[in-house]
């Protein structure tokens, strides 16, 4: 029988779209028709389970799924025997404590003896213990931000990204206790055959991730500006320079970091570059 690797992804929610996009960008195609809870790839030995994110650590720990994509917050909260093997760079958020806007807050000790509502009792409990604060934790599974407004708790501990949910519920963020992003988790002790498939998958993910942080730029420049342009363009390898038909001019191509983008473009213009074109890169394989 053919060996295949089984991956659990969130069925619906903050992680699902980006998880499926990443898998597709790795050239792994599958059909996840509406309502389907299981699917198989047509061109890679991979099977998909579409689940609630909270259940994924348990499935991976039991070996029902070999891999899973979840938030680091859930990976740590559930405390299951799973290995975090790769940070995926999306669904970035933080787990924070928040109190009603009108409440004066001077520090974590203010929550001593209070009630805190959260879906993350383990992470919160650990943080309070480290801070030497004793508060009662009220576990609720969703819509946590409602709790102070209905007299259920003095504070909440929930996921924050833009902060707009806190704002619209009259709350203010007072402590950030855990930083999270989507991660790939794996069951410990995968067979050699499955490990080989996982390595192939991780190789493709690396190529996709690397490309996302880079841009490909092309420009025309007078030959007397080329030395300065070469100095401006970062990176290990020198840019590709091709003479143009128009005498005294060249075409320059290079890969730059997304983070340095605007500084580099400005410096190139100052150096004399013209007609600068910028394009995304789909994959980068070394
Ligand atoms: N606003 C946000 N911005 C970025 N990432 C987020 C945000 N909210 C949650 N996340 C991350 O995405 C994960 C899934 O969030 P989501 O809100 O979809 O979970 P859920 O409601 O528990 O879903 P499920 O129905 O699968 O149990 C969280 O554990 C967290 O890591
Ligand atoms: O800081 P913000 O950008 O407002 O994001 C934070 C909100 O996002 C998540 O909920 P989500 O919208 O995924 O809904 P859910 O409560 O149904 O999980 C999280 O539980 C917060 O409520
Ligand atoms: Mg959930």
Cα Rg: 25 Å
Helix-residue proportion: 25-40%
What is the CATH C level class of the largest domain, in words?
Alpha Beta
| Inertia-based shape | flat
| C-alpha termini separation | 33 Å
Q: What class would the helix/strand composition place it in?
A: alpha/beta
Strand order of the largest sheet: 2-3-1-4-11-5
Order of helices and strands: EHEEHEHEEEHEEHEEHEHEEHE
Question: Judging by the overall fold, what is the CATH architecture of the largest domain?
Answer: 3-Layer(aba) Sandwich
Biggest sheet descriptor: 6 strands, mixed
Number of H- or I-type helical stretches: 8
How would you characterize this protein structure?
There is one protein chain. The chain is flat. Helix 7 packs antiparallel against helix 8. The two termini are 33 Å apart. It has 286 residues and is of the alpha/beta class. The protein has helices at residues 16-25, 56-62, 72-78, 121-131, 164-168, 192-212, 226-232, 261-271; strands at residues 5-10, 38-40, 46-51, 67-71, 83-87, 93-100, 115-118, 136-139, 155-160, 171-180, 182-186, 214-222, 240-243, 249-257, 274-280. The relative contact order is 0.14. The strands form 3 sheets. It has a 6-stranded mixed beta sheet, sandwiched between helices. The protein has a 5-stranded mixed beta sheet with strand order 8-7-9-6-10. Strands 13-14-12-15 form a 4-stranded antiparallel beta sheet. It has 3 domains: 5-91 and 182-211, D-Maltodextrin-Binding Protein, domain 2 (3-Layer(aba) Sandwich); 93-180, Periplasmic binding protein-like II (D-Maltodextrin-Binding Protein, domain 2); 214-280, Alpha-Beta Plaits (2-Layer Sandwich), CATH 3.30.70. Bound molecules: adenosine-5'-triphosphate, 1-O-pyrophosphono-5-O-phosphono-alpha-D-ribofuranose and magnesium ion. Magnesium ion binds at residues 52-54. Belongs to the ATP phosphoribosyltransferase family. Long subfamily.
């Amino acid at each position: 029988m053919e060996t295949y690797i089984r991956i659990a992804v969130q069925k619906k929610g903050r992680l699902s779209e980006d998880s499926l996009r990443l898998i597709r960008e790795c050239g792994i195609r599958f059909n996840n028709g509406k309502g389907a809870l299981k699917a198989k790839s047509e061109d890679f030995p991979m099977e998909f389970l579409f689940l609630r994110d909270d259940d994924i650590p348990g499935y991976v720990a039991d070996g029902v799924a070999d891999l899973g994509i979840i938030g680091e917050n859930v990976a740590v909260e559930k405390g299951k025997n799973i290995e975090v093997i790769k940070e995926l760079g999306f669904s970035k958020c933080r787990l924070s404590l928040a109190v009603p806007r009108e409440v004066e807050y001077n520090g974590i000790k203010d929550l001593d003896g209070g009630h805190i509502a959260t879906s993350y009792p383990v992470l919160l409990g650990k943080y309070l213990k480290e801070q030497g604060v004793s508060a009662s934790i009220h576990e609720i599974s969703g819509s946590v931000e409602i709790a102070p407004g209905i007299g259920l708790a003095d504070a909440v501990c929930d996921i924050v990204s833009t902060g707009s949910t806190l704002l619209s519920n009259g709350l203010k963020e007072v402590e950030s206790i855990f930083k999270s992003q989507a991660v790939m988790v794996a069951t410990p002790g995968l067979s050699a055959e499955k490990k080989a498939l996982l390595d192939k998958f991780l190789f493709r993910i690396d190529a996709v991730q690397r490309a996302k942080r880079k841009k490909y730029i092309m420009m025309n420049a007078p030959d007397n500006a080329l030395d300065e342009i070469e100095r401006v363009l970062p990176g290990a390898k020198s840019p590709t320079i091709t003479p143009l038909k128009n005498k005294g001019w060249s075409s320059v191509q290079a890969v730059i970091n997304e983070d340095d983008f605007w500084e580099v473009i400005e410096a190139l213009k100052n150096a004399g570059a013209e007609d600068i074109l910028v394009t995304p890169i789909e994959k980068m394989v070394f």
